[in-house]
Amino acid sequence: MDNVTPMIKQYLEIKNKYPDAILFYRMGDFYEMFFEDAKIASEILDITLTSRDKNKEDSVPLCGVPYHAVSGYLQKLVDRGFKVAICEQMEDSSQAKGLVRREVIRVVTPGMVLEDDLLQPKANNFLMAIAPGERFGLAILDASTGDFLAAEVNTVQSLRDEVLRVTPKEILLPESSKNQAAMKNLMKAYPQALYSPLPPEVFEEERSGERLKSLGLVLPEGKDQAQRAVGAILFYVQETQKTAPVHLSRLEFYQVQDYLVLDETTRRNLELFENLQTRGRKGSLLDVLDETTTSMGGRMLKRWLGSPLMDLNRIEDRLEKVAELKERDLPRKAIRDTLRQVRDMERLSGRISLGVANARDLVALRMSLHLLPDVRTLLSPLEYEGFKPTLTDLSDLPDLRDLLERAIEDNPPLSLKDGGLFKKGFDATLDRYREVSREGKGWIADLEAKEKMKTGISSLKVRFNRVFGYYLEVTKSNLPSVPAHYMRKQTLVNAERFITSEL
Q1: What is the pLDDT of residue 246?
Q2: Domain 311-418 adopts which CATH fold?
């Protein structure tokens, strides 16, 4: 570390905190990778591997990708089972004194993907945590939708069946258990997932209980193993997203015996989700049945097919609903036409809650909220009693809808950094700042004239430099006329520089 440049030293210090992730280190318009990360990424992403100080023996391998096209590169790495730590510049390089401060703002992992273009619209992207013991505690989360489930199983075979049913992209487990026979067998039976070991204390019952309590989540009495697994997932979400997972407000505990167990062979031979020839979706049972008009409905149908109900009352309730909608052609068509316009509100909510949404996500949410009253109106005439709870639970969210209507422009830019997100009239202070930014020179000239008149100092100037920004400059002979509210910023040979709250 003593022989490297300040920038490489900073890179290594950050990389040391994320040793199991490829570090995307922001430098201007690019994310750069160095050392072993660069070698791995250049091969997978098919980009040029070069080096810093090419002519020296200790040259540093590097490669880079443009920040505006990062999604495609992220997808390739995540699909290959890698984690990517996104390290951003936390201050303007033109204003920074010395090296720009950088921090990792989130870690993208196979089980923690939030971007729409990295996800399949009609498939969940599950993260699973396993807490081993006399029983196995399970926690299952799709962070992009907020689907959050917990269970406990008694045997290694039940654990394996549940993992194969859920098909998680990533599995969290205690570091101390990765060499146990049960975990080794699971890794062999299901090699498709990335297995992420965590320190054993992450799974401690007391710490897990505190995490659940902080979010108002509750599990049935005595489900200690499930609590440990849920706590580990909550820890992982906060660690990777750098924010509390406040959108995880609903946790469902389920019993595995409530669903028919379909082993791997049965699923494959029945071609539930993929055909036997190409292993693609086309020609599978899901492909034949899926006439859903929304991504949310598509994901739900897939979950239903993979988890057939065992409870007769729930089966009959579902069939009664289907039967009425099947017989009532016009209401069904109207409902489908309306739902076709609804965007993926589950994933929109997830991105907004975790702070990775853009302005157009807010517009999509607003548009979808405007359709909810129409959905309620269309569902209201249905006669089967089982629809009534749905109507009760379906809130129009008028306050949120009205806020978005008043606040967000109809065609905002994609990036939040471009500005132009809020409507004129939503916030008076913002409107004033915008006016200042558009008419800055005139505003500065008006301020200078106003201050000359107030103080009687005809030589007073409003000036700017990169170090101090804007300031008022007064010659030394006029210092007795300087008002008390002027704040001294710098002393020169023949003048002094001041700032004011307004400036």
Answers
A1: 82
A2: MutS, DNA mismatch repair protein; Chain A, domain 3 (1.10.1420)
